[in-house]
């Protein structure tokens, strides 16, 4: 059911402004608690897969912001795990990029373990 909703959500996005919101240790708790849906890219600048994903992820964030401009509904964020190592430790991120989807502050239980 969640995958269906996520696919439906992703299929109706359009273009607007400035990429994913940079998440830090000072704003992650408020972002997770004040938004219904939060999709986070945990990345490392030295990782070539993260480098390949980042521009696509920012375009995705722009489209979502255009489609869902209302506050508190959807946030597309990203965490630089090199500068925010406390976040990557807290959320058990040790592979890059890692994408996590939160609904009402709770991470969905599914994890993709296939090829990149």
Automatic annotation (TrEMBL):
<dbReference type="GO" id="GO:0005793">
    <property type="term" value="C:endoplasmic reticulum-Golgi intermediate compartment"/>
</dbReference>
<dbReference type="GO" id="GO:0003756">
    <property type="term" value="F:protein disulfide isomerase activity"/>
</dbReference>
<dbReference type="InterPro" id="IPR013766">
    <property type="entry name" value="Thioredoxin_domain"/>
</dbReference>
<dbReference type="Pfam" id="PF00085">
    <property type="entry name" value="Thioredoxin"/>
</dbReference>
<feature type="signal peptide">
    <location>
        <begin position="1"/>
        <end position="18"/>
    </location>
</feature>
<keyword id="KW-0732">Signal</keyword>
<feature type="domain" description="Thioredoxin">
    <location>
        <begin position="3"/>
        <end position="116"/>
    </location>
</feature>
<dbReference type="GO" id="GO:0005789">
    <property type="term" value="C:endoplasmic reticulum membrane"/>
</dbReference>
<dbReference type="InterPro" id="IPR036249">
    <property type="entry name" value="Thioredoxin-like_sf"/>
</dbReference>
<protein>
    <recommendedName>
        <fullName>Thioredoxin domain-containing protein</fullName>
    </recommendedName>
</protein>
<dbReference type="InterPro" id="IPR052643">
    <property type="entry name" value="ERP44"/>
</dbReference>
<dbReference type="GO" id="GO:0006457">
    <property type="term" value="P:protein folding"/>
</dbReference>
